[in-house]
Amino acid sequence: NAEYMGSAEAKILMNIDDSSLPASHAETVHLCVPADANPAGNVHGGTILNLIEFVGYLAAVRHTRKRTVTVNMDNMDFHAPMYLGELACLKAWLTFASPRSLEVCVHVWAENCMTGARRHTNTAYVTYVNLDENGEPVEIPPVVPRTELETQWFEQGRLRYEQRKRLREEENAPRADIEKFNMVVNRLGKTVQESQVELLQVMLPSDNNSGGVIHGGVLMKLMDNAAGVVAVRHCQSNVVTARLDRLHIRSHIKIGELVKIRAYITFSSAKSLEIFVQVQAESALDSFQTHTKDAMDAYFIFVSLNRERRIQDVPQLKVESIDEARRFEEGRKRYEERKKGRSANR
Question: Given its phi and psi angles, is residue 50 left (phi above 0), alpha (psi -120 to 50 degrees) or beta?
Fold first, then answer.
């Protein structure tokens, strides 16, 4: 009966008997070692994202027994830090399936090896699809709830599925003329250009999954690393990932393709930064031509830590153009939505 710290729902799920979960559920335990650390001494947010995508992938493949790839991860908060020497314990199971997509829920706990005390750190909902030999989506085997609890998960998953569809429609709607945005300049802040970064990396066989494409978790870790570099440049302090927001997987990447990751700040509140990260992949068509495709993008929320590892104020963002002002205003609206969401969950 180890001590437990976390949400009531996570406590129930931690203690649930595996026989109560779908047969395709998956679990993994990872010992957090120095290679997993960020400069603050916590486990890197990208490491946790990689583990989440991997165990979710296992559950999805167990259900479909087909070539499976990641297409989406819902917004996710980092509720508590994970430290070196602790065990990252992850449990994943199916919650919902539409004809062409499958939702997997992943719960993450940090466990103290010496005392057995656990605390809930993350809950993620990851969407996967099956592909045929030509890379086209194929039908997903249905998820059939067996119990009252699974029926509840299925219905909640259906609502999230409908919400994702609405969000895609809203994001694809025509955008307002950027000239309508008033440019508000904080002349005491730091500019976007001072901290933005661009990273390049070639994808190797070790990054590949059994579906023949690069693991989504590998790319999420690279994205989190790029966002962390931006946050450190801007804050000049230790920083940690607080949230992953609006991840989109637009196309999949293969071995040998050159990945370009661009990251820059879009919004700053008093104590947090919103950083947009875009992933593009470049492949050689022949000796003279290359093809570039948009692969992934997401918003990462970072906070700055003082020497006592407490959250502190961040330098404000200095807006210098109409386009930056538009992005800042859109970021402010997302920030307000996140605040409302946190208040509703209390």
Answer: alpha
- Please identify which of the residues 74, 224, 245, 297 carries the catalytic annotation: 224
pLDDT digits (tens, 9 = 90+) for 274-332: 999 999 999 865 556 678 999 999 999 999 999 888 999 999 999 999 999 999 999 99
Distance CA 240, CA 192 (A): 19
Cα–Cα distance, 61 to 52 (Å, whole number): 14
Q: How many CB atoms lie within 10 A of CB 318?
A: 17
CA separation for the pair 47, 101 (Å, rounded): 25
CA dist list (Å): 248 to 167, 171, 223, 272, 296: 11, 11, 12, 22, 5
122 in active site = no
Q: Which amino acid is at 74?
A: D
Q: Which one is catalytic: 38, 42, 50, 238?
A: 38
Are the beta carbons of 273 and 235 closer than 8 angstroms?
yes
Provide φ and ψ at 120, rounded to 5°.
-75, 130
Residue type, 27: E
Phi first, then psi, for residue 343 (nearest 5°) are: -65, -40
**Token duo for residue 168:** 């895609």
Q: Is 38 designated active site?
A: yes
179: confidence class by pLDDT, cuts 50, 70, 90: very low
- Look at residues 92, 102, 123, 120 and name the one whose alpha carbon lies nearest to residue 27: 92
For the four alpha carbons of 106, 108, 113 and 117, in that order, the dihedral sign comes to: negative
Q: Copy the structure tokens of residue 344.
A: 């509703």
147 neighbors 16 (Cβ within 8 angstroms): no
Closest CA to 243 of 208, 211, 209, 267: 267
